[in-house]
Amino acid sequence: MPRVVVTGLGPVSSIGVGAEAFAAALRAGRSGISPITSFDTTGFPHDRGGEVRDFEPGAILRRIAPGRWGRSSQFAAAAGRLAVADGRLDLAQLSPERAGAVIGTTSGESVAVEAVTAQLVAEGFSAVAPDLLRQVPASRLAHAVSAELGLAGESLTIATACSASNYAIGYAYDLLASGEADVMLAGGADSVCRWAHAGFFRLGALAPDRCTPFDRDRAGILTGEGGAVLLMETLEHAQSRGARAYAEVLGYGLNCDASHPVAPDRASVAECIRIAHRNAAVKPSEVDYICAHGTGTPANDATEAQAIREVFGARMPPVSSIKSMIGHTMGAASGFGAIATTIAIDRGFLPPTVNLTVADPALGDLDVVPNQPRPATVRIAQNNGFAFGGNNAIVMLGAVR
Amino acid sequence: MTTGGLVISGWGAVSPDGIGVPALVDRHAAGTPPALTPAGDPPEPSGYAYAGFDPRRELGRKGTSFYDRATALAAVACGEALRDSALPLTDDGDRSRVGLVLGTTLGSFKSTSDFTRETLVQDKPYLVNPVLFPNTVMNCAAGQAAIRHGLRGVNATIAGGPTAFLSALRYADNALTRGYADAILVGAVEEFSAHRAWTVHLTGPDGSSRAAGEGAAVFTIERSGVPRRGAHHDAEVLAVATGFGPGPGGGADALAACVRRVLARVRLPEGEPSLVVSGEWETGDRSEYDAVVSVLGRRPRRLLPKSLFGECDAAHGALGLAVLLGLHRAEPERDGTVTLLTARGGDGAAAAALVRGWGRGGRSRG
Questions:
Q1: Domain for residue A246, yes or no?
Q2: What is the arithmetic mean of pLDDT over B102-118?
Q3: What is the total count of domains within chain A?
Q4: Is A126's CB within 8 Å of B177's CB?
Q5: Beta-carbon separation of B244 and A152 below 8 A
Q6: Residue A133 and residue A193 share a domain
Q7: Is residue A194 domain-shared with residue A259, that is, in the same domain?
Q8: What is the pLDDT of residue B150?
Q9: Residues in chain A where the model's pLDDT stays below 50
Q10: Is residue A277 among the annotated active site residues?
């Protein structure tokens, strides 16, 4: 069976655009949180989020016209373009039908849906701009990547909420491992939007100013945004073009809680970890690092820690949450997690959980890599993604041997 | 592209004419859509809705209070598919190796827009109803249907619009072939709402009478290599392919490529596929048929679900397959014939599948 490797990284994030900037920010433990400007926060008790302030799609995109696409599609296409550049992939040398795009998302073109809604509230349905309605379908996230890069293979948007990037990476891995494709661009994208800010606030899950995963006093998430795309290819294809592989995709696992629309389920998460390990032929004792879902809500972090303890027992690997830096980027979250995990493997350091003041005693001796990055040899790592709807997805990555 | 070897062992559908198979067959026999339902007071556009749909009657009160229409349609269709395929339950009702893959366009446009509307019209922008928040997320229907039916296996929502159902079929095909599940319910759903009615009205060609429809259809698929005792054999999914055509006119090329790929996967008798189920509006619409004819070199008959149900977006392809299998169940003379399913999206997406259908005449079909 063909082996699958990651050869390019395309983060468009609040802490940096491009692999170098993102890696440097992870190492520095930078925060991408700032007062929200993309919608009017007047009247909201909390007003902070992880917006990509310096996103200039026109400076990155070469083929598609940004104005024809919604913000999330722009994030996806830009992230795809950056991943191709980082991997030094010559698109002219590709067989287009052997290359595709798989993009995960929670809310798709949420900014377009909100603009439609503002128009219909102001003037009624008949006044809504048709061109805005044409931007609304979520399928356009993957299509933006395919159109930008000229890919003719599968072009799929997976809408499994906050674990969707892991679904996308998993599906791309399958297409490569089963010989259906040579090259895939996979990850996720989402945009900061008013309705998610309001919804999380009303669920009591929105933090006032900082996201503090695993802290005793953690108060919830901050909504974030961006595009996170990985260039994946078969090892053979990477070798044939002399590309350097950052990491190998070892496999992934999916399952569904089927118990509650929003509350995480310890037993189900633990089972998903076991499925991922089994599919990747990995033993718990071999895992050197877990990039956590780590949203910063009391429920998620406690449930996730318990599930990890259930599978790993006394020998839990270090677990950190990059959401402490970039907030919860929704459908892009596990894509950023996969990029951070790849960087950890390739560059030999664990990204920290920043903002940790008092470790939560209820989490026991869980090592959350508090506040400072840590040099480490990461041979095998686990990237967690969980979601509303009980959609658990975990991707296993490893050093290329 | 699939490795083939998938069997549909049962299915269920909800259409504007109600729940179940006979309604689909009758609608096909009528050859025209049902009466129009208004989306609101005139001049609101109207469409083809299942006006008598009562989620509580179908599903009971427990757990359904906050279902939106799309979620309820999906939950009903999943229940119908499970019943029709007689998929066995373990004692505790845990179907950990049974998955669900649903196609959509953007989830419930109405639920999402209504929720964000509250942030604009309430005294305080945060005065939204938190229990409705999950309905803004596109995987709501698949997540709720999984809860209702105890489906703990691979659960995915595929946002594909016009190609959503065939993309969902392709996704499920991969999950089964890779051994991630033993059976998967695969389908698609779209609800009727003012949001969708206006979208069809505002984005269609000038002066057209095109209207939005709604429905859900869900199919139980299993690997044919591992037959389940007593499993029905309603259809074989011989091949599925999806692709993309970058650049202007790329969608037609992508569809032709998908048709070529599915045909290359299986050896068919002369004259098959004998039928095409496409996403076109009427026979004068050749946006998919031209690509099919160019590859086949002949002109098979077409079945056009949009002429029966209106614009059902993501659900369109699923309803098309449901009509086809309804005809197979009703008309034994169709046994063993092969149909080509096609779909094209506005941005360059394309998909095709080959399906061989059967009735339930009781013969062994190895």
A1: no
A2: 98
A3: 2
A4: no
A5: yes
A6: yes
A7: no
A8: 94
A9: none
A10: no
